Each structure stands twice: as C-alpha cells, then as structure tokens.
Fold this sequence. Notes:
This protein is mostly beta strands. The chain has helices at residues 77-88, 95-98; strands spanning 17-27, 34-44, 47-57, 67-76.
Amino acid sequence: MTDKIMPVTQTIRGDEKAVGLTETNYQSPGNRGFHRYQCIYVVRDGRTAEFRRDLGPTKKWKGVKLLNIPSLLEHTCDELIALAEELRNEQAIDVKDLLELDKINLV
Length: 107
C-alpha cells in the first residue's frame, strides 16, 4: 500500500502532455464486480493526478494483457490512448487470465 494519496482530475485534453497510461482491473464502485479501467496520469498544480475511465466488466477483456505505458510528458493523452488501442489489438494473449489459472485450487 502506498502512504500517499494521488490527486484525481475529472477532465483531460487530448493535446495535453501525459505522464503515462495504465489499464488494469479494479473493483467497481458499489461492488458491481471487477471492471477494467484506463488510467491516464497528467500534471495538475505541479503534482501527478489520475484520470480514470471505466472500460467495462473484466469478462469483456478476457485474455487481453494489462497495459503500462510510460510517457514522461513526451506524448499527449490522445497519442497514449491510440497506442493503448493498438497494443490491445496485437493479439497479445494473457494465458494465465485466459486459462483462469489464478482460480485453480492446488490443495
């Protein structure tokens, strides 16, 4: 766990420089199951802030690898979003997720 709270932002601009982009699975608000979220990190008031977009239930993303794309303010938000879509569509398969190996009971 981290001991710091990251600021959030409600909006981003497409031409705004970004620190990075991640796509990962989190529990959705209201305990509606796990969803895949796209998080874009931008600078607000001299600190890194997170913009989060819900991409839907994780079952829609079965077999698709999680993403972590660093940018370090070299690319815009739109460029990172386009890169994420390109990487998602490369037929990269997360075999562990596809075979549900984390659910195997070895006892």
